[in-house]
Amino acid sequence: MIVYQPIRDVSASAQLTYNNMRTYYEYYAVDWALPTIVEQITGLDNWDILSDGDVIGAIRLAWDNDECYLRDLQVSSQYQNQGIGA
Question: Is 86 a member of any domain?
Fold first, then answer.
């Protein structure tokens, strides 16, 4: 069962993002290190995605007045293609 909770470990969440996005960063020569990712996600509404108690991803939301925007959705590679991000 998939459940959500406020992110408990921002550094671990940033690492997940870095791992998922590394190929993109390298291909497009984006110079993002973990501290940059932590800085970028700290101001967002961050949620862990859990499966059977294990953190398997993150959802990041941004709010503007009365609207909410999905800023980022990351799912650990071993859990991708299972409909979790759908």
Answer: no
Q: Is residue 50 pLDDT above 90, yes or no?
A: yes
Cα distance between residue 77 and residue 51, in whole Å: 14
**Residues shown for the chain:** 86
CB atoms within 10 A of CB 35: 10
The answer for residues whose C-beta is within 8 angstroms of residue 42's C-beta and 6 or more apart is 10
* DSSP code at position 53: T
* Domain housing 36: 2-79
For residue 84, being part of any structural domain is answered with no
Give CA 16 to chain center in angstroms: 7
CATH code of the domain containing 26: 3.40.630.30
pTM (predicted TM-score): 0.88
User: Binning pLDDT at 50, 70 and 90, where does residue 85 land?
Assistant: confident
- How many structural domains is the chain composed of? 1
